[in-house]
Structure formats: C-alpha cells, structure tokens
What does this fold into?
Amino acid sequence: MLAAAGLLAVMFVVYNANGREIGSYDTQPTKLAARELLLRRTLALGHVVGATPEFAERWGFIQAADGNYRSIYSPVPAVLAAAIAWPFWKAGLLDLRAPLGAAALAVLAASLLTAAAVVLAFFSARQRLTRGPALLLAAGLGLATGFWSTASQTLWQTDAAVFAIALAVLVFATPSARLGAGAFAPIGLGLGLALATRPQLAPLVGVLLLGTWRRRSLGGAAAATAIVGVLGAALAIQNMRWFGHPLGALPLLQDRNALVHASGASFRLSLEGLVGLLVSPSRGLLIFSPVVLVAAAGVRQALSETWDGPLRWCAMAIVAQYLLYGSYSVWWGGHTYGPRYLLDLLPVAVPLAAAAMARPSWPPVATAAAATALAWSLVISGTGAFYYPNDQWNSNPTDIDRDHARLWDWSDNQIRRCWKAGPSPQNFALFDRNALRVRPQ
It folds into this structure.
C-alpha cells in the first residue's frame, strides 16, 4: 500500500506541475456544472449563462427540453468532480468563486481521477509482476501517454472514463479463486460508470461483460450486468427528463460534425481513421506513445491463454473499441493534443502489457527498443503538458476540423510545432494566490 500511495502522490504532483488547466470550449460546461452542483445544488447552467451570455452561443451549452441550460455531455464526471472537490471546498482550500476557481476544481478532480486510475493499473499489473516492474508499467501508463498531457489536465469525460475502466479491469483480471462473492460489484460499477460517462464505450463494455459471464460465476456476472443496467437506465431516465431523448444531446452530434468538422455521417468504415489513430503524425498513438507496443507484445500470451483467462477478452475489447473510434467521422478528436480517443483503451491494455513484461527474458534489442520508446513517450507527453496549446497547430494556418489533410503533414506536425512555439504562457497560472481567492470587499 505504501508503494501505491507514493505512486498516487507522484502522479498528482507531476500532473499539476504545469500549474494550469488545459481546457477547451467543449470542456467548459462540465467543470461549471460541477461548480454549480456545489454552490447551488443543481447541474443546470442557467446562472452561468446569465452571468456570461456568450456561453449560450457555445457548443457544449444547450437549452434543454426542460427549459434549463445544460451541458450536452454526461453529468457523471461533474458529479464525481463535485464529490472530490467538496472536502477541499469545505476546508477552505478551494475557493469556487475565485477567478480561476472552476479551473482549479477541474484540474483537482481530473488529476486525482487519472492518478487513481494509474494506481488501479498498478494493482492490476501486480497480479503478474513483482512490485518494481509493476510500478514501472503504471508509471509508464501515467506519464508516457496522454494520461499526463490530456486526461489529467481538465475535467471532461476521459478522466472519469479511464478511472472507471481501470476499476473494472482490476477485478476482471483477478483470478476467480482470489475473489469473494461481493467482489464482482466493482466490475459492474466500473463498466456502468464508463458507459454512463461515455456511451461510445459500449463495444468495450459489452466485450468485458461477455467475458465476465464466461469467466465468472453466474451470480457474479448477473450482479455485474445488473449494476451496468441500473446505471445505464438511470442516465437514460435523466436524459429523458432533461432532453426528451434517452441518449440526451448525443443525437445532435451528427449535425454538429457535418457543420463544424466538415464530415458526413457520424460513423462509417474508414481506413483513414483506423490508420490515423495509430500513425497520423499529429494524432497517431504510436507516434505520441510508442511505448504502448509493449502491450502489443502481450498478444502472444493472449493467444496461448484460454477463454477462462482475461487476456483474450482484454484484447477483444481493445479491438472492438478501436474499430468504433476508427470509423468515427471525427476520429482525430477535434482540437486536442495527440490521440485523445485511444486513451480509453489503455487501462484494458495493462494486463496485456504485464503479461509481456512477465516473460522470463527479453532480447537485448527488444529491451533497448522498449527503453527508447519509453523515453520518447515521456518527452512527448511532457511536451503536451507544458507546451500545448501554445503551438496553435489546431487552428493555424487552417482549422484542423475543416482541413483534414493537415493530419497527414509530416513537415508541420503538432509535436514539432509545440517545440518551435515553446512553453505555454499559461503555465503556473494556478500558482497565483490572487487567481484562487476572492479578494475581500
């Protein structure tokens, strides 16, 4: 437990070392909904829009069917963030009315959720590895991927999703002999929260639920499935009350994509998306975090393992979710840094990476390649945390959401542009006491 506590502390400190929030237009409603929940006990954003009328014109804020302004995104991350921030707020450590109070809330919640996901991944890895290698794997997940540069930097969907998936995977990958009757609830809770946070995660959730039925007792699998069903039904009922549709505002995304992202149908089979998610010079996972290839090395163990083990199911869940994201018309994820969508898959890759690292010996060439990939991935993640969005790559010289050819431009890719632009001037803004406290009148 001491190692896990130390890992949590290190992740939290590193995630907040840049002293700022890296948000966007799309992330604003979630953090403001969390603040409203604490200040006014409501997720409605009418007060926010009243104070700043410009928000009514922004994507992410919508006047719902119930007459209130609301976030178009799931309320789950906002509720989790409010719960996390509540003790800090009550203790006087967080001033929600300060100029950067909402930003501080967002970073606090996102960094803690992401750091907790890393700790859960450590425990998952410990099922196959000794403490040292398990810590290395977890630290690589936390610092050599978009967990650092994206998930931990603002409150939205990714931070809550990766935490929920990591919780489910921890129990899913545990041998049944080590589990008591009530231990199956975290699988259902994790998968249910993931689905309620991002309904697009249905393929991943579905595969892991099927694996739970195959690998666990019928009672445990039924309990996990029931929890997922209850959480999904609760969100659908809430969406009906607010938006008049069980999927909430999600049906609006297709028209939004066609208008803003110059795309057609929301989903279509596309080789461009499938390849781009891996090797686009400004969005490819293998460009930004090649260290994830360690998990790919675990596929060999997955093929040799039976369906009673977790590895085949984890691999199938990754493939199913990858196919969905690769067929999404906005596979590049809008204005962001690196492969935002594929971060959801990384907690499921942990058992595969642990299986690969548990091999008795690695050839010297493979060890050197893995070390090089880790070093590169660390540098690129740190670049995102301290340099993005000073590069302005997403909007200059043309908007990436309209000019999709730029996603394949090696001469002007996002990483190189970040290095040329230098550190973001917003760094350390949250270290200014005046930004975090309301001055007495």
